[in-house]
Every structure is written in C-alpha cells, then in structure tokens.
Amino acid sequence: LTEDFFQKGVMFWPTMCALRCLQQAEISIGKKVLILGGGVSGQIIAQLARLMGAAAVAVSEPVEQKRKIALRTGASFVIDPSKENVMRRVEEITDNLGFDVVIDTTGRVDALSEVIGYTTRGGTIVIYSFFEREKAMRINLEQLYFKEITIKSSFGASFSPSAEKILGVMEKIQ
Hints:
The chain is of the alpha/beta class and 174 residues long. It has seven helices and six strands, in the order αβαβαβαβαβαβα. Strand 1, helix 2 and strand 2 form a beta-alpha-beta unit. Helix 1 crosses helix 2 and helix 1 packs across helix 7.
C-alpha cells in the first residue's frame, strides 16, 4: 500500500459523486456557477467546476473557515448567507443576470427557497444533497416557467470514468 492510499480512498467516492453532479450540470467553459454549501462536497464541486472551465465560481457558506478554504482553493467569490443578502450578492457578481448553474449541497429546504432567483434565464439547478423525507420545496412556478430553468438531481456517481481518470482528477484538487 502506498503512503497516501487511505487519503485517496476516502476522497475517491466524493470525487466521483462530484463529477457526476457536474455532468448533470453540464459545466462548460465560461459558465458561472453558484454552490450552496461549502462542506466537503461543495468544496470538491467548486474546485472541479474551475478545472472544467467555469468562468466564475461562488460558494455560499455561513462558516468562515469554509469560506476561506473555498477562496484558497479556487472560488472566485464567497457569500456569507448568515450576514449578507444572497440575492443582492448574486446580482452584484453576475451583473443582475444570475448564475448559469446553481448547485445545492446543503440539504436544507430553506436554502432552496430563493434558488430560482439566483439562476439565469435558461440556467440549471442541480439538487445534490439529501433532504428529510417528505420535505416540500416551495418554488415560484411562474418564475421557473418564464426563466425556462431546468432542475436536475444528482445521486451517487457515474461509473463511466475509469479509476485512473478519477485518481488523475484527485491529484488536481486540494
């Protein structure tokens, strides 16, 4: 066994899941991405989005240490949802257009209450986290309709990339 075997093993599944999430989000060069939640999954997704060519990556996270990590590892912007008006920051960052992709990693229904407002016309929302059973998400259907937003979910990992490719990606994230 190599010295870093266990560290790589621990990160293998979360990295595969994050890659699947970004496949669902259809990340491509130039897209602006907002990640709700700066835990392990949110941090990996943010780094991979940058590696995949996202023009800007913002992470909304109430814990200061996690925001600092996000900035240090490639996030363009961080938002403190406990102290800042998230919608106002989204407008500032995107020149009032919204993000092309919004990914929720929080597992909190209240974090999703304004998610359509954070998303640009024709954008994509990806639900990446687990929620309590039978929790209802309130969404503005009129806004969803007129903005032509796509809502997707991402559960687990796609097994299409080989283990070698995943390990290669893992070498690039911190």
